[in-house]
Specification:
With 637 residues, the protein is α+β, with helices and mostly antiparallel strands. It contains eight helices and 46 strands.
C-alpha cells in the first residue's frame, strides 16, 4: 500500500551565497515582498537536504511530490536532474526509484525571476519565491494508481443525478497491472455501491451536495488488486449535485434558485507570504462562512488542495482559475495550457467547483490576434477535458462590451470599480445592463468590486480615495443596491475577503499592500464593511455598531450607523434611548455628541457597544497625509 513520508523538515537554504536552516513551507519574500517599492528579490535560490532510503519491499517505487514551488524549479536527485516544472501553484511529482541510494541528496533550484514564458508576470500581487507547500516522498507498489500524469490523484469521478438516484462513473488510471475495485461510501462510511473500473454505479435515494444548506459528501475508494491482494488504494470525496445558470435568473443549484454572493481570496499572510498552514486555511474559511458567503472566487491561481477540500465540506461554490492575467505573452501559451491541464486534472473531483476561469483582465495591455485565438484554444481544451463544467472570463473594467473575447467562454463576469478608481457608482450598473442587453443569452456576473480601507483612517464626510472605513462602507452599500436590482447576475464576488501583499503598491500609508479586504491582512480586524455583508448574507443573528475605531469626533452631533440582520434596532447613548428603527441591514441614528458617549445598540437580546469621545478639533491621525497617500495605479507601471 502507498505510504507518504513528509519531507518538510531540515532543509538548507541558499540565497545569494548565504546558507540558512529552514523548514518548508517557506518563501524568501515574506518580508521584502510586502514592504513596498516593487523591489523584492526575484532570483534563483536553492533548497537541499538529505533523504534516507525508505523501507521498501521488492518492486516498490518512490516518487517525490511537491505541492507548490513558485514559480519555476529544477529538481536534482543524487546529482542527476530528474525534472523541471514551470508554474508555481500546482502539484507535481517525479519517479526517483532508479536514482535511489541509502542516503540521497535532494536539491531544488527555485526561480521566481521575470520570465516571458511562465504566467504570471504582470499582476497586482506579490510573486513569492520558494517551496511554499508540502513536500512528500511517496512509496508505492510497482503496480499502482497513476502518479505521473499532471499531478492528478489517479481517480476521476463523474457523478450525475437521475431522479432520486445518483449515478457515478469512476475512471481509475493504473500504472502496471491489476484489477480495479470501486467502492462508494456515504458520509457514515457505509457502502452504498460497488463495482469495477469505468462502470456506472447507482446510489439509490441519493443525498445531494446542496451548497451551504447541506454540503453532503460521498467517498469513492479505488483498490488495485493483484493476485488477490490489494497493492494500492486511493480515495476521493465527491458530491452529487446539478446546477444550471440562467442568463435572466442567475444560478440554480439542484433545481432551485441559489444566488451566488461571495468573495475573492488571496492566500498570503504577514511575514510568511504564501507559506501558510492548515490552521490558517481553517481560519480563512471560518470568516468566509461567518460573513455568509455562498461562493468564493479563488484568485488568481490554483490554491492549496486543502482549501478546495474545505470548500467542499462547507458548501462554498467555487470559481477556479489559472494565473493567465493582465498581459498576454506570445511565448507563454504552452505554459498557460499546462497550468489549466494541471488545475482540471488535480481538482476535477471537487463538487464545489462549478467553472474554470480562462483569464483575468487580460485586455489590460495591448496584444495581437494571438490572444483571441489562444482563448479559443484554451476554451476548447477545457470543454474537451471537462465537459461537465462551463468556462468563464473576468473582464477588465474598461473593456468594451463588444470585445470579441466576451464571445469565447460560456460565462462572463466584469471587474468593476466605478466609485473607486473612477467616479460615478451608477456607471457599473449601466455597464452591466448594457452587456445584458447586448448578450441576452450569456450569463453575466460581477467578478470584482471593492474599495481600499484602513481601519485607522476615518472621516465624518468620507469621499472617494480617502481610504477610510467609512467610504468603504458607502462603496459596498452602493454596490449591494446595484446587485440586488439585477437578479440576472449569475455570481458576484467582492474584491477582496482579505487584504493582501502587492509590493508595487503604495497607498493608504502602508506600502506594499492592497487594502480592499473586508478583513485586515493579519486577519485580526474585521472592517465595518464585513458586517454589512454579514447583515445581507448571514442568517446568524447579530448587531454591529460601525465606527468604533472613529473614537474621537468633533461637532455637536454625529451619525451612528448600525448593521444587523434583524428587523428592528434600538440605540442608547449613556443609558438613554436615542431612537428605535425598523428596516433591513442598515440603521442610522443622529446622536447629540456629549463629552463621552457610551453607545449601545440592541436587537432583541443581542447588543453591541462603542465609546466615542468629543474633541475640540479633528484627530489628525484619522486623515491620510498627501505625502503618504500614494497611487492607486502604481502596480500597473
Amino acid at each position: 500500500m502507498r505510504r507518504f513520508i513528509n519531507l518538510n523538515k531540515g532543509w538548507k537554504f541558499t540565497k545569494e551565497g548565504t546558507v540558512t536552516d529552514v523548514d518548508v513551507p517557506h518563501t524568501w519574500n515574506g518580508v521584502d515582498g510586502q514592504d513596498g517599492g516593487n523591489d523584492y528579490k526575484r532570483l534563483v535560490c536553492k533548497y537541499e537536504r538529505t533523504v534516507a532510503r525508505p523501507e521498501m519491499t521488492d518492486g516498490e517505487q518512490v516518487y517525490l511530490e511537491f505541492k507548490g514551488v513558485n514559480s519555476s524549479c529544477k529538481v536534482t536527485f543524487n546529482g542527476k536532474e530528474v525534472c523541471r516544472h514551470d508554474g508555481g501553484y500546482s502539484k507535481f511529482r517525479v519517479n526517483v526509484t532508479e536514482q535511489l541510494l541509502d542516503d540521497n541528496k535532494l536539491e531544488v533550484e527555485v526561480d521566481n525571476r521575470a520570465n516571458e514564458t511562465v504566467y504570471p508576470q504582470t499582476a497586482d500581487f506579490t510573486f513569492y519565491g520558494g517551496i511554499y507547500r508540502d513536500v512528500n516522498l511517496v512509496v508505492v507498489d510497482k503496480n499502482h494508481f497513476d502518479l505521473d500524469y499532471a499531478g492528478a490523484p489517479g481517480i476521476k469521478v463523474t457523478p450525475t443525478v437521475e431522479g432520486m438516484a445518483g449515478v457515478v462513473k469512476t475512471e481509475a488510471f493504473v500504472t502496471g497491472e491489476g484489477d480495479v475495485k470501486i467502492t462508494v461510501l456515504d458520509a457514515a462510511d457505509k457502502v452504498v455501491a460497488e463495482g469495477g473500473n469505468n462502470e456506472e454505479l447507482t446510489v439509490p435515494n441519493v443525498r445531494l451536495w446542496n451548497g451551504r444548506i447541506d454540503p453532503y459528501l460521498y467517498t469513492a475508494k479505488a483498490e488495485l488488486v493483484v493476485g488477490g491482494k490489494v497493492v494500492d488504494e486511493v480515495k476521493t470525496h465527491f458530491g452529487f449535485r446539478t446546477f444550471r445558470i440562467d442568463p435572466d435568473k442567475g444560478f440554480f443549484l439542484n433545481g432551485k434558485s441559489y444566488p451566488l454572493r461571495g468573495v475573492c481570496r488571496h492566500q498570503d499572510r504577514p511575514k510568511i507570504g504564501n507559506a501558510i498552514t492548515k490552521a490558517m486555511h481553517d481560519e480563512d474559511m471560518s470568516m468566509i462562512v461567518e460573513v455568509g458567503a455562498t461562493t468564493i472566487r479563488l484568485a488568481h491561481y490554483q490554491h492549496d488542495d486543502y482549501f478546495y477540500d474545505l470548500c467542499d465540506r462547507y458548501g462554498l461554490v467555487v470559481w477556479a482559475e489559472i494565473p493567465y492575467i493582465s498581459r498576454h505573452m506570445d511565448g507563454a501559451d504552452k505554459n498557460a495550457m499546462s497550468q489549466m491541464k494541471e488545475l482540471i486534472s488535480q481538482q476535477y473531483n471537487h463538487p464545489s467547483i462549478v467553472c474554470w476561469g480562462l483569464s483575468n483582465e487580460i485586455t489590460m495591455h495591448r496584444a495581437g490576434p494571438d490572444r483571441l485565438e489562444f482563448h479559443k484554444k484554451l476554451n476548447d481544451f477545457c470543454h474537451s477535458y471537462d465537459p461537465t463544467r462551463p468556462t468563464v472570463i473576468a473582464v477588465y473594467m474598461v473593456a468594451m462590451v463588444r470585445n470579441k473575447l466576451n464571445y469565447v467562454p460560456d460565462l462572463v463576469s466584469y471587474n468593476l470599480y466605478h466609485g473607486w478608481y473612477l467616479p460615478f457608482f451608477t456607471l457599473s450598473g449601466k455597464k452591466l445592463d448594457r452587456f445584458h442587453r447586448a448578450h441576452p443569452n450569456t450569463p453575466l456576473g460581477l467578478s470584482e468590486y471593492g474599495a481600499e480601507a484602513m481601519p485607522n483612517l476615518h472621516s465624518a464626510s468620507p469621499r472617494r480615495g480617502d481610504n477610510t472605513e467609512e467610504f468603504q462602507c458607502i462603496f459596498h452599500e452602493k454596490y449591494l443596491d446595484i446587485i440586488e436590482a439585477r437578479p440576472y447576475l449569475w455570481a458576484t464576488h467582492v474584491w477582496n475577503m482579505y487584504d493582501f501583499a502587492a509590493d508595487a503598491r503604495n497607498q493608504g500609508g502602508e506600502p506594499g499592500m492592497n487594502h480592499k479586504g473586508l478583513v485586515t491582512f493579519d486577519r485580526k480586524t474585521k472592517k465595518d464593511a464585513f458586517y454589512l455583508y454579514k447583515a445581507h448574507w448571514s442568517s446568524d443573528p447579530f448587531v454591529h455598531i460601525c465606527g468604533k475605531r472613529f473614537a474621537n469626533r468633533c461637532g455637536e452631533n454625529m451619525t451612528v450607523k448600525v448593521y444587523s440582520n434583524g428587523d428592528e434596532v434600538q440605540l442608547y447613548n449613556n443609558g438613554r434611548l436615542v431612537g428605535q428603527k425598523k428596516g433591513k441591514y442598515k440603521f442610522e441614528f443622529s446622536v447629540n455628541l456629549e463629552n463621552e458617549n457610551n453607545l449601545e445598540a440592541k436587537c432583541g437580546s443581542l447588543t453591541d457597544t462603542a465609546v466615542i469621545k468629543k474633541v475640540g478639533s479633528p484627530d489628525p491621525s484619522y486623515k491620510l497625509s498627501k505625502k503618504n497617500k500614494g497611487s492607486n495605479k502604481s502596480w500597473e507601471k
